[in-house]
Amino acid sequence: MNVTRHRQVSWRAYLILTVVAIVGFTGLAAFTGRWVVTALPIGFLFGFFLQKGDLCGSSAFSEILVMRDGRKLWGLWVLIVVAALGFAFLNLLGWVQLNPKPFLYLNYVVGGVLFGTGMVLAGGCISGCLYKAAAGNLNSMVALLTIPVGVMVVEFGPLQSVHQAMKGFVVNTSQGEKLSLSAISGLPYWLWAVVLALLTLIGSFLLRGSHPAFSSDSSSSRRSLQQIVTRPWKPWLAGLAIGLLMVPAYLSSAASGRNYPLGVTHGVMQAELLFIDQGFQHVYQIAPTKSSGPPSDLSKAPATSKQATGANRKIVWWLVLLVVAMIPGSWVSARLSGQAKLLRKPPDEILFALLGGLLIGIGAAFATGCVVGNIMSGWALMSIGMILFGIVTIMANWVATYFYMMGGELGR
Fold it and tell me: The pTM is what?
């Protein structure tokens, strides 16, 4: 009886503290004009939602082969479509300027192969390792040690020149625009978003009718607040929540000098760079409108020739705060669900996780992003390059899953 009462008090305390923190940080940002501070509540909620739905890109792809289960993949798709609708709304209002990534096809192919393979060995993508490590997964903790090393090997180390050379293989439209579904079709972005949403709604009804695993149980609509906070979520529900979170995330990021939605790859690396900060450019707000002279605010100064040909010497504080806040958000989610505990792993798995983290970091750096930045955000922005990266990543994931997790034999 006392244990039950303690749990009730516990989840209420966590919920109240979370609401107070979100309101407080948002109010502080509005009062000071430093919207970068809002990355903290966004990161907290991002980690919370990811852990609630166990929405890891690696497991979403691998479970298609291992378990014949596509629920997490469907959750990712719901996330992408909801985010695309939100981005279309923001763009129509003129609040954000859509910024799909360029079609660096060589980067995305090479990076996708390395990234897709590494995530299987590590047991998660970068965001997956972050929320699983916060919940106590030892393999994810170990992988997070080598992921930033892999990124820095490409951004600052021996693979830097290779990375820069690969960026020369880029394809644009005849008008010089970045390749996106809207650019190559001539149809407006919002129309693509609406069409994809309608197709997704049709698909959800078909899946609910033919696959019981995709349907919600009859009691889900009557769940109490305590059950919502303390129980795991279905992947589609976590995808819906993150897709909606993408909207304020894009606004927050754009207001902080970074015109792109969610991303974690460089946030993980740059959090490490804070310990060895030597002349890095700090990005935390929008630079003043450029006049006749160079911009006085270094928060968003144009890249110098050294930066263009050398390492990307930036500390983007929005990314750093987002990644840092994901850890407590994931831990609180796991704690409330009773899943926060150390998961010990065999020594051979730990060694593979170290190697996997290194491959993840190198692949994500080559590809300029991971599942969050390239698939969640990139697909929502309908970037053709990100679609290529996603396809290559999934194929590499399946090959690695087949040999490493399934021993070269398909399940019966």
Answer: 0.89
